C-alpha cells in the first residue's frame, strides 16, 4: 500500500487542494473553548490508558489490550487519590481512561530533574513491564486536552509532526528491554496578543529516557548522558526513581491550529492516488454495467409491448407462431411470481429495517464529521454521536421494517414490532459483552466498565425501543407498496441455472465490487482502530461511502436482471445476500491483516480481534445487504410496471 508509487505533480496539487485546507480547517468550527493560563499557573497533566502501538523493532502490533495507567503492575507514581476525569460515552467506549497525576507543571517555568517518587519492582511487576516494553506499549498523557506526543519526521515529505503517545521503554541492541523512568516534557505555549497573562498550550512533546540513578536526586542528576539504562530484574527487586524535567518554549502556533501537527496525513499523494485509482475502476465498471443493462432492458420492453400489440391483433384470426416462440423467454415470464412473498419475510424485514437505520446513521455521522463537529479535541465525539444517532434512528428502523413486512404480506406483525429493535442490537450487544468479559479477565483498561454498560442498556430500552415501536406503528399504518403485477396462485418451476448464477458464485462476484470501492479507506480505518492513530480523513471516507453505495446498487441490480432472465424469481434474499457478501470480503481482509500486520501471540488478543472484526462485518453485511435489496426492489417494480401483462 505504501509502495513507491510515482505520483505526478498534478496529484500533489490535487492532494494539497483537496486534502489539506478543507479537511483540517473544518475542525475548528465548534471545537472546545480555549483555556488561558497566567504565568506560573498550574497546568494539569492527565494520564490516559497505556496502549499498544506497533513495536519499533518490527513495525508489527503485538497486542490489542490497553491497561490503566495506575494498573498495580506498572507501579507508576500516583497522587494520594487519583481521580477519574469526566469523559464522554464515546471516549470511554473507545478505551480512554483519563485520570489525574502527580506531575506539577507551572506555566512558563522551566524545571529540571524534578523527583516524582521511587517505586520498587518485584519479579512479577518486572516481568509484566518488560513484556509490555517488548510488545511496544506507549504511554498516553494529556496536557490541556492535547496528547503528549513524540516528534516524528515523515521521510517522504520531510515534514515533522507529532505522533500521540511515547514509549514505555525500548528494546536495546542486545534485545534487553530498558524502562523509561525520566521524562523531558517540552510544552509549547502561545502568547495571545502579547499579553503575558494569556498563555495557551499549543503543543506537548515528551522525550522519555532511561536513567539508572545511583544516589540522591538533585536538579542536575538527570542531565548527564552517561547514566546506564534501567533494567528491571526479573529475578529480584529493582528500585526505580522517577524524574521529569519541564521546558516551556514560546511558539507562534495559534491555539486554533494546534491540532494540525497531530493530524498528519501519511503521504496524502498515495492516499489520493489509490483512491482515484479505485474510483476510476469502480465508476467505469458501473457505467458500463448500467448502460448495457439499460440498452438490454429497453429492447426487452419494446419487444414485449410489441408482442402484446401483435397478440391483440391476432385475436382477429391469424396467429404468429414465431412471435409466440419468441415470447417464451426472458424476465417477463416470471411476472406471476416475481412478487411472491419470499421465505422468512420476518427475518428479511428486520434486517432491512436495521440496515436502513445503519445507512441513515452512517450518512449523518459522515456529514457531521465533514462539518467539523467531530474534532479530535472533542475526545470520543465520534463514538458518542454514533450511539446517539443509532438510538434516535430506531424510529427509522421500526418504520422501514414494518412497512417492508406489510408489503411482503407478513402476518406476524407483533413479532416484527418486537424483534426489530431487539434482534440485531441484541446480537451486537451480546457479542460485545462476551468480548468484554475477556478484557475484564485480563484487567485491561479497554474493558468497558459495568456502569457504562448499564447506561447503554438504559439508552437502548428507554429511548431506542419506544422510538422503534412508534416507527413500526406508523409503518404498519402506511399503505403497503403494491406490486404492479398480480401474483399467480401456483408457483412456477425454476429451471436449472448456469454456474455463475448459482447462489455462492453470484455472491462472490457481486460482493467484490463494493468491497473494492472501500478497500483503500478500510486500510486507514483499521490502522486507526488497532494502532490508535487519529482518524480524521472524513472527506475520503465520504467519497468512498458514496462510491460503495453506487457500486453496491448497480451490481446487485445487474445480478437480479440476469436472475430474472434465467426465470429465477427468488430475487429478494439473493439480492440481500449477494450485496451483503462484501462484508465477507471485509472479514477476509481483516484476517489477512491479522496475519500480516499483527502478531497477537495469545488466545485473548486473537479472540478479541476476530470478535470485533466479525461484529463490524456483521453490521456491514446488514448495511450493504439492505442497499442491494432496496435498489433491486426499486428496479423490479420499475421494469414490471413498464410492460403490459394481458
Ligand atoms: C526554558 O527552556 C527552553 C528550552 O531549553 C528555553 O528555550 C526557554 O528559554 C527556557 N525558558 C526560561 C524561562 O528559561
From TrEMBL:
Residues 1-26 form the signal peptide. The keyword Repeat does not apply. InterPro entries: EMP70. Keywords: Membrane, Signal, Transmembrane, Transmembrane helix. It is a multi-pass membrane protein. It is found in: Membrane. It holds the Pfam family EMP70. The chain crosses the membrane at residues 272-297, 346-373, 385-405, 417-441, 453-476, 508-531, 537-564, 576-595, 607-636. Belongs to the nonaspanin (TM9SF) (TC 9.A.2) family. This is Transmembrane 9 superfamily member.
